[in-house]
């Protein structure tokens, strides 16, 4: 069973529909026991880091998430769901994340002719070909909506970069753990292929 973790922030139905389009059912849940029992987990998210991590803690989801990652189950973070995996965020102060990956979340500092948030389609520069990128070509476009991005301490976890004035991390991969800054559920055929690849791991 694929479980999409509901902590009150994110395009839950869009992600669920994405999996359905590629022939895989996914359950939306905020129940820690259901999260523990799932064979694959998805952590989506849109919104503020501070509110998200507070709600994850309040619902008792932090430990099941980390236990599932440690157990080797396939795990996919999306957008804010990527950022929450890191140790800390600088969004509206400093806030601790789940700490599954070392590093921090920082705000874009860009020339005036670049808008923040970064919204739109950017090319994937594949650095390491993770299994969920099977069949996705170098330079494929994915859809982004964000004002913050992750800076991993260990650059070996970076699987995909993209460029917005300067290169930044667009996807991480470590073993069973995958997470994207872009939204596969909004990225048309390439995004659906990524979801299908994840569902079939």
Order of helices and strands: EHEHEHHEHEEEEEEEEEEH
User: Which fold name fills CATH's third level, the topology?
Assistant: Rossmann fold
| Secondary-structure arrangement, i.e. CATH architecture | 3-Layer(aba) Sandwich
Shape: globular
The first-level CATH class is given as Alpha Beta
Query: How are the strands ordered across the major sheet?
Result: 2-1-3-4-14-13-12-9
Number of helices: 6
Give the quaternary arrangement of the chains.
single chain
Q: What's the structural domain tally?
A: 1
Major pleated sheet:
8 strands, mixed
What portion of residues is helical? 25-40%
Mean pLDDT: 97
From the N-terminal CA to the C-terminal CA, the straight-line distance is 12 Å
How would you classify the helix and strand content by structural class? alpha/beta
Report the count of strand segments.
14
Radius of gyration: 15 Å
The CATH homologous superfamily is termed Class I glutamine amidotransferase (GATase) domain
* Unreliable stretches: none
């Amino acid at each position: 069973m694929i479980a999409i973790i509901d902590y009150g922030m994110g395009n839950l139905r869009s992600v669920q529909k994405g999996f359905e389009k590629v022939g895989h059912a996914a359950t939306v849940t905020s129940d820690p026991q259901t999260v523990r029992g799932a064979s694959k987990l998805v952590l989506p998210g849109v919104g503020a880091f501070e509110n998200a991590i507070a709600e994850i803690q309040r619902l008792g989801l932090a430990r099941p998430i980390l236990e599932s990652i440690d157990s080797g189950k396939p795990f996919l973070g999306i957008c804010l769901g990527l950022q929450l995996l890191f140790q800390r965020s600088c969004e509206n102060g400093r806030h601790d994340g789940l700490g599954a990956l070392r590093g921090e979340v920082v705000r874009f500092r860009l020339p005036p002719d670049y808008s923040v948030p970064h919204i739109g389609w950017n090319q994937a520069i594949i650095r390491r070909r993770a299994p969920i990128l099977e069949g996705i070509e170098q330079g494929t476009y994915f859809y982004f909506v964000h004002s913050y991005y992750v800076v991993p301490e260990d650059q070996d976890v970076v699987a995909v970069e993209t460029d917005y004035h300067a290169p930044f991390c667009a996807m991480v991969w470590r073993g069973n753990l995958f997470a994207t800054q872009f939204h596969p559920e909004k990225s048309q055929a390439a995004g659906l292929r990524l979801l299908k690849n994840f569902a079939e791991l």
